Description:
Blueprint: E1 7-16, E2 25-27, E3 30-33, E4 36-37, E5 51-55, H1 56-66, E6 79-82, E7 94-97, E8 100-107, H2 117-122, H3 127-130, E9 132-138, E10 140-142, E11 147-151, E12 154-162, H4 164-167, H5 175-189, E13 193-201, H6 205-217, E14 222-226, H7 237-241, E15 247-248, H8 250-261, E16 273-277, E17 280-285, H9 289-310
Parallel strand pairs: 5-6, 12-13, 12-14, 14-17
Antiparallel strand pairs: 1-2, 1-6, 1-11, 3-4, 3-10, 5-9, 7-8, 7-11, 8-9, 15-16, 16-17
Helix pairs in contact: 5-9, 8-9
Amino acid sequence: MVYKENKKLSVVSVNTSTKKGVVKSPVEFIDLYSSGVRGDAHASTAGIRQVSMLAKESIDRFSKESAKQFRYGDFAENITTEGFELYMTHPLDRFICGDVVLEVTQIGKKCHGGFCAIFREVGNCVMPKEGIFARVLNPGIIKPGDALVYQQKVYFTMVITLSDRASQGIYEDKSGPAIEQKLEQYFKQNYMKYCIKSSIIADNPYQLKELLLLAKQENVDFIFTTGGTGIGPRDITPEVIKPLLDKEIPGIMDNIRFKYGQDKPNALISRSIAGVMGNSLVFALPGSVRAVNEYITEIEGSLKHMAYMLHGLDTH
């Protein structure tokens, strides 16, 4: 499910506690700062679960199923909302309330069962499945009656085709569109909002470097290049990309070369690379449609996890 941009929901209660693992009590307002909710037991500078949130819709449904009435804060949520199901959001989505900006970091959590005071007092808990957690990106005050604006994370993607002949219009670029098609399918299947921009350039190291630095400056999430990974005199893609990387991710491309090289020895000649450049994940793929489909299929298995890791989220 993908919610529309700027969808709003209401804050129906804000709640705090001075101890972990217990129900929280409604308060007039919460003061959000860099570590979470000021005065709340769960505030943590290093943590990604600084603020807990739960939808009234989840509480009402759980109340009906268990034939019990629950108060706001009974499930240890800091913010109780009304408007849509919070657990349908995704990590890196955001909620904005005036100057306050919260970024979703986790959906659900591990249930501690009988070791949790909430579970012992209430008899069950909806938080592990339908509660979400967020970190504070911009501080401020939130109180009942405030409106939260939901913004879904947009994954900005750049696709660059390197080909002397395609850039001159001698033949049609097919590998770039193949990357776009595969990524569009992936984003839609994972309910991810996306924006893809593509370019065709000659096998020119200066043009490639200029595009990569622009993408880094604009915090593009994913950069895919196709072409220039062979051993020919005009194959320059790895030489341009490698010095710009902050971290290389060799395992991805090594695995792909090994997997497909068993049946197609020519696949082992590819010098494809992957890595991190600023806040961007960079993947340099070969220039054939078949290779593009093979590489993207393998990369998709860990693409979202890599994006979360790059933003400091551990989604194991």
